[in-house]
Amino acid sequence: MTGYEAIRFINDVLYILDQRKLPLEEEYFEAKTYKDIVYAIDNMVLRGAPLIGIAAAFGIYLSTKDAKTKQEIFSKFYEAKSRISQTRPTAVSLFKAMDEMAKCIDEFNILPEYKLKNKLRAKAISLWEKEKEIEEEMAGVGANYLKDKKRILTHCNTGMLATGGYGTALGVIRKLWEENGDIMVIVDETRPFLQGSRLTAWELKKLSIPYRIVVDSACCMLMNRSLVDCVIVGADRIAKNGDAANKIGTASLATVAKRFNVPFFVVVPFETIDKNIESGKDIPIEVRNDKEITQIKDFVIAPEGSKTLNFSFDITNAEFISAIITEEGIFHYPYNFK
Description:
Elements: E1 7-10, E2 13-17, E3 28-31, H1 34-42, H2 49-64, H3 70-84, H4 92-107, H5 113-145, E4 151-154, H6 160-163, H7 169-180, E5 184-188, H8 195-207, E6 211-214, H9 219-224, E7 230-233, E8 237-239, E9 244-247, H10 250-259, E10 264-267, E11 273-274, H11 291-294, E12 295-296, E13 299-300, E14 313-316, E15 323-326, E16 329-331
Parallel strand pairs: 4-5, 4-7, 5-6, 7-10, 8-11, 10-15
Antiparallel strand pairs: 1-2, 2-3, 8-9, 9-14, 12-13, 15-16
């Protein structure tokens, strides 16, 4: 793909393709401090669990880059880690990135301050590169497994915009297109923030992959009419028993897919599986602000003063998931990750 990247890291500035402005404008937000990273995650300049983890790692480095002493590095590191960790409680990638950066601090704390900062910078870059490698491997595994699927329904956005690399669920779709060129992607809008119609459709257009946009509530009718061969989604966190937390609306799709015998697949890096959490009941679910429901951009679509219940994620029961596809292989129900 040419013409865009989700992020660029140049001269100690993380340039983030501003997803709030897509698909109408392609502008980069400049993150020069960890507070810029916090703002970007909180305000949906960037989103997607893998990309949030990568950005968090760069945020840790940016918090320390101007420190003059090792003590100042440690102080700024823990300040940034505490604040960044509060941004998106559901996405396990964020916390694993924080852990990797903390390991770097522990492993190299005897180095002079300038070398320690270089190590943190290198670690953030290596986590990004590793994510890209995992996604390409995962796409190959998924495309081989799903090579007979032609009409694919997907939810939210799981491509480069969500990962900084090849993509998770959309990476599998992309690989299927590259290998056989005979697919149609059904993109639901994904209310309330429209990651499907704004972002997934934009990526598919860039890739020249055929697609159709549908409203979220049309998916049941499409499956009832046998117009969907399978559903492919990503996830922000998967519990030990296979319950999956993903963008709100995923559980509804999985339930309908089960009713109409449409296979439902989740594509994630293996590290998304949180073996410390027994089931979906234990996964923290982020609740976001009213305006994401009552407004579209600056246009108000609900009565003034309306209150909302804006859960960002829901939990898909493991029994509704036909397979979980990872770079380490394909897993089937009943899941019991150890």
